[in-house]
């Protein structure tokens, strides 16, 4: 069994590195191992791909696949160095940012004060 070539990953590798040079370079850059010379036995495990990287329905028959098939254009994107758990401080900051953006949105969607005053209180003309 071939192990995943990503550093600090000990899973069993299932996806071969593509033969297409353009995509191969993207994979090696994403893996952060530009010095690696991939062989036929070099593989990556499923942990490094998101669900959208897989084809769900066959483009030939229109039937759902029983197994996961990686799209030809898929590039690994899930690694230990970019998926750190979100701290409590970061969550609190995200919540504050969402609340602030919501307030701004509500503020700018309201009509201006001059328009709303005329609608509410009709002006007396002499």
From TrEMBL:
UniProt-listed SUPFAM superfamilies: Glucocorticoid receptor-like (DNA-binding domain)
Family matches, as Gene3D superfamilies: THAP domain
Subcellular compartments: Nucleus, Nucleoplasm
Keyword Mitochondrion: no
InterPro entries: THAP1/10, THAP_Znf, THAP_Znf_sf
Segments forming domain THAP-type: 1-79
GO molecular function: sequence-specific DNA binding; zinc ion binding
Annotated GO CC locations: nucleoplasm
Lineage top rank: taxon: Eukaryota
Keyword tags: Cell cycle, Coiled coil, DNA-binding, Metal-binding, Nucleus, Transcription, Transcription regulation, Zinc, Zinc-finger
UniProt xrefs under PANTHER family: THAP DOMAIN-CONTAINING, THAP DOMAIN-CONTAINING PROTEIN 1
Family: Belongs to the THAP1 family.
Record's protein name: THAP domain-containing protein 2-like
Species of provenance: Spodoptera litura
